[in-house]
Structure formats: structure tokens, C-alpha cells
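Researcher: I'm comparing several assemblies side by side, and this is the next one on my list. It has 586 residues spread over two chains. Same procedure as the others: predict the full complex and return the structure.
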Amino acid sequence: MALLELRGLSAEVDGKPALSGLSLSVDPGESRPVPSALSKVLMGHPSCRVTAGSIVLDGADITVLSTAERARRGLLPSFPRPPALPGVTVASFLRAALAARTRGLKDFRKLLREKLAVLKLDEGFGSRRLDAALSDAERTGFEALQRELLKPSLIIEDGVLRAL
Amino acid sequence: MNAAARFSEAESRRNAPAWLAAARKTAIARFSELGFPTEADEDWRFTRVEPLAKTAFELPKPAATVEAKALVPFDAYRLVFVDGRHAPALSDLAGLAQGVRVASLAQVLKDEPALLEPRLKASAEPAFAALNTAFFDDGALVIVPRGVTLEKPVHLLFLSTAAGAPVMWHGRVLVSVEAGAKLTLVEEYAGAGSGTYFANMVCDLDLAENAVLEHAKLQHDSESAFHVASLRVRQGRDSRFAGHSVSLGAALCRNDIAVSLAGEGADCALDGLYHAGGRQQVDFHTAIDHVVPHCGSRELFKGVLDGSARAVFNGLISVQPGAQKTSASVYNKNLVLSENALVNTKPEFKISANDVQCKHGATVGQLSGDALFYLRSRGIGAVEARNLLVYAFAREMVEKLPVEALREAVSARLARSLGAGD
């Protein structure tokens, strides 16, 4: 079964038509170029409105689900220039993301230490504040850390879908 | 019964020394002349005190019992007050070093009133402070003698139990940190009942030369409470004062904080955090007076406003003629979570010297939609995403608090009030 299936998807971004009757399917392990407007539409960004068709992930229609619920079901969009999160640390960001998926999350610190070691990232990276832009190396490390912990099934990059 | 009549009644039951009776009489005359402030008063333009002024408050009946387990425990020399009255059974001063005084003011008034005379000089006080001078019956006296470092904090806990008719109580705190002495002081206000009460505090902190005082005030009074407090700090040469104010509770909370940098080389760091929702009003008026040269002050207050809450921040820095080489900053940052919440902020300088470094700023902002979407795209729900950003905004102030138990208590209370999503 396809991981993701779009069935005649039409959508507006900021009130302007952006997608028109798009149908495609992505199988696990497959990468596929897509219109760049699709990233926002897939995540249910507040500026987007689906006018026709549907988005099916793992056989379930997610067209009207909240952004957070789509993410919990396996979508992980990457942000080339993520917005600043004043005062939020890498650890508090990841803890909140995991807590949203795991009831009674335990031993988060230990889990984070393990993943940092696996990815050969600095032990202190968890305390890095997301106030300002990360360096390219930090951003790459942070994204790898998110993939390790959140275990997405579909990574959404600008113009490319990568099914894991 | 009006304030003057209630005062006569209170005085008839008291057996105060002549100097105190005279000071109280001056104070009630002053209050009668001033009355409760109105919006015509420049210092009260944005804060409505009518609900307070219109409520008929009684003085509290003998204290209700409070169970010790209700208290936040941390290792401290502790004085507990219930409805403004010292509760010896809940207090713990075991192991206090010889020469250090931590005592109920009512007890000192009874046993050694002469000790208080120089500390309770009558002056032309504003209305609420005058009301306090006229009515206070208890509070705390803390004296840390020359050169002594108190290894544990002193915790002054004021619990209000009001359940029925509105009550008011007036407390006075007098603190002297003598030359070279060091003290951490935690002042906490909490409501145990659901009734309306009015807590009117005056707290005087005196730092002699080279004294070090870290002061943290945590106000989490019940939601129908009125909390009015005046904190007056006098700093001698080379003294260090760090003041933290956390205001979470009360229907109306007004804090006047005045710091006088009266000795060269004195340093003051003033921090504050307020969170208000519903129809809460929180008002901080701070005034740091650079009287002499070579003093530094840094001030940062952060606020989170939700619902139809109102916040006022007025941060005045005065630099007196001749107070050269002053370094001062005052910042106020607000996060407004609701369309109906309102902030009036005004950091200001009055500078009468020319060789000074002064900076100020104020911001009133909202959560960034992009930041919220980024968090939600990681699976974090809308409410949790909002709370994460709000807590991250406030955390800087929580981390500055002096006692671990206090940081935990404030974090937990903040999380709880954020969770309510009011």
C-alpha cells in the first residue's frame, strides 16, 4: 500500500489557487519531486485551504486533521530557516514533541543523551537555545536528532517528499 | 464604619508607647486627608481601586487554624502569619545564630518597643502606607548583625484564610542587614480560603555598607484578594541588593518598589515576573533613586497577560545632581496572549547628572504565528505549543530566583495557571 496518496487535491494558499486536481502516490522508500506549495498544504498551514480532493496517509484520510495530529501520524516537514523560539531549548522542544506522542514520557534526559551519542553530537547540545538561527551544522544535527526521536514516515522538504 | 472610626476603636484596645500612638495618629490623619487614590492621581491612572475602596472590610477575627502540611517546605528560618497574625506553631526558628533577630513584630512591640522607634519614623507616606502605619499590629523584624552570613534563608509566609465577610490586615516588615552581613529573604503571600481579603504590606529593607541582601517576593494570593504592598529599600556604600518580585495571584495587586542608592558603589538588580488572566489587575511602580555617584542598577520585569487582564509597569530611574558615573538600565517586556488584555508600560529616566550611562526599553508583543506553527508541525498541540513559548519567555525570570524550592514552586504554579488557559 502507498504511504501517501493524494486524490485530486486542489488547494488555495493565501486565497490564491496553488494546487489543482493533484493526484499521486508515494511508496515507502521512495523520493518524489512535488510542487513546493504542497509542503504547507500537507501540514495544514493556516494560510492553506483544501478546496477539493483528499490526502490519505497509511490508508487514513488526514485532510481535515490538525497540524499536530498530522505530525504525530508521521509527517515531518523540514524548515530551511526555522523561526526563532525565544527561550526554548533543543531539549524542551524535543521533550514537548515526544510528550505529545508518548503518554507518561519517562527518562527523556537519558534517551536524549543516547541519541546525542549515536549522532556524535555534543552532550551540551540539549541546552542550546533556539532564540537565534542555528549554524548549518547545528541545524543538520538538530534535524537528524528530530528524525531519530520522532521517527517520521514521511519527510517533507521544499519540493521533495521522502518516504522512509 | 469608616477608617477613622475603625482606627479609634483599634487604638482603644492597644497599649502602644506614646511615640507609636503619635505616629499612628499622624498616619490616620494623613490617610483621611488623602483617601483612596483615584484615576486623577498620576501614579494610579491605569489601576482601578474602586472595588477595593467600596468593600467594607473587617479586621480579622482571631486566626483560623491552618495545617502545617499546607506550606511549601524548604530549609529556612520561618515565620508564618495567618491573617496577618504571627502563628508560632507554624513557625520555625530553630538553630538561629546568637545575635540574629527574626521575630514577630507584635512580640517586639510588647517586649522591646524602643528597638522599633528609630525604624518606624513618621513621614508623609502615600495613602496605603499611611493606612498600614495606622493599623499594623504584627509583621516581622529581621536583624542580621555586622559581618554575619545567614546560611539559610529567612522565609516570611503570610497566609490568608478569609472565607466569609471581607477582611483586611496590615503587616509591617522591618529588615536590617548590618555592615558586611548577608541575608536571603523570601516573602510569600498565599490565600487558603475563597473569600475576599485585603492584604496591605509595608516592607522596609535597610542595607548597611557592604551588606548583601537577596530578596524574593512570591505573591500567589487567592483570586478575589486585593494585595497592596510598598517595598522600600535603602542601600549603603558598596552594598548589593537583588530583588525579585513574582506576582501570580490576586484580583488586584499593586506593588510600589522604591530603592535609594544612598552610598557610593552600591548595586541594585531588580527583577520581576507577573502573570495575570481573567479580570486580574497587576501594577508595578518602581523607583530607583541614584543619590550618590558610582552606583549601578539593572531592572528587568516580564509580564504575561491573558483574558481581560490589565498590567501597569512604571519604572522610574532618577539620577540626582552629582550622581556621576551612574550606570542604570530598566526594561519591561510583555507577552499579550489575548485581544482583551492590556498593558500600560512606561520606563522613564529623570537625569540631573551628565556623566551617566542609562538605557531603557519596553516591548509588548504577541506569540509568533510562525513559531506556533513550527511547534505544531512537530506534533505539539496548540495549547501545549502556546504554553511552551510562554514558559520559555518567563523562564529567564524563574531561573534568577534564589532558592531551588522557590524556582520549583513558581514553575509549577506558572504551569498550572497556563494550563488553565484562561
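Model: For your comparison table: The longest strand of chain B covers residues 167-177.
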